[in-house]
Amino acid sequence: MSADEKFYVSYNSVHKICQKAAADILETQGKPDVIIAIGGGGFIPARIIRTFLKKDGEKNIPIQAIGLSLYEDMGTGQDKIGKEVIRTQWLDFGSLDKHFDSLIGKNILIVDEVDDTRTTLHYALSELYKDVQNKAKELDTSSSGTKFSVFVLHNKKKAKRAELNEEQMNGGTYLSGKDVDDIWIAYPWESHDIDAHTEKAKAQGNY
Ligand code: 5GP
Fold first, then answer.
1. Nearest residue CA, atom 21 of ligand 1?
2. Catalytic member of 24, 79, 101, 116
3. Which intervals hold domain Phosphoribosyltransferase (predicted)?
4. What is the CATH T-level fold of the domain 10-179, as seen in this structure?
5. Is the minimum distance from the CB of 79 to ligand 1 under 6 angstroms?
6. pLDDT of residue 81
7. pTM of this prediction?
8. Is 116 known to be catalytic?
9. Which of 5, 8, 2 is nearest to 186 (CA)?
10. Is 50 helix (H, G, I), strand (E, B) or coil?
């Protein structure tokens, strides 16, 4: 594949990657208590993987959506939190506390579509970890049982700008559906012509 060519991914292949990943996660980590989807790319994989993480008769795993954008131009604006990442949406603590007793002690699965420079995942993990620490302090309890795992559909094989802190993951695992070369991945939910997109994905074997 040439460098200027895109890697086309079909809905079908996304579904199959999620199915396989769910089996791996159930085996290594057990069923997550909550899924945190990084939007917008993590929303659809998060919803699909939930299907395969749940057995018949079990309750649905709650999905919390967070929104993060990478900010290339470093500035000092108020809306920029962290180094290069902007929070556009964060956890719904009201709902978490009311229905779910916070994230403390939970088996948490963070889902995004692609791990490119790893900046976004690093930010999400470290901020969620901080939130749990703060909440535990507030409640005068221990956060030691809290575990974070990460699932992405695709991981780009390249030098990363940030790493995931294993201590923060606390035994949680990092799982990528597929490790791919460092080229642009075209996801089906971004396509304006899904038939042509799917044909290209098929031609590349991503079906
Ligand atoms: P990061 O560099 O922080 O790992 O990735 C930041 C975000 O950039 C991803 O969540 C994704 O939204 C976007 N991104 C990075 N590489 C690609 C790609 O190849 N295709 C698409 N569609 N989005 C990408």
1. 185
2. 116
3. 13-128
4. Rossmann fold (3.40.50)
5. no
6. 47
7. 0.92
8. yes
9. 8
10. helix
